Amino acid sequence: MSRRSERDAHSSSSACLCACVNILPGMISHYWWQGVLERGEETVMIIKTRSSLTGPVSTAVKEMHSYATPAILVVPIESVDRDYLDWLMAETAPAAKA
Hints:
Elements: H1 3-14, E1 20-33, E2 36-48, H2 54-64, H3 82-97
């Protein structure tokens, strides 16, 4: 697992920008970069936050990330367990009020 990913996850969580970060090491990516097909070993981070904090989370990821263009995707939730959503909202409330 990437220590950098863990450090970044801890930083985002400490700032209450997210309730949870899942770190999935060992992903292999094939992608086009500057006209060349590349292959890279990457770590996926799933950052769980509220929609109002996607801007600050995106900014934080870009500031910490080593890539010029990190993949930042916002996925709307169609359905979620109510208790889990309540927990997520409570844990991110301090950053949302800031």
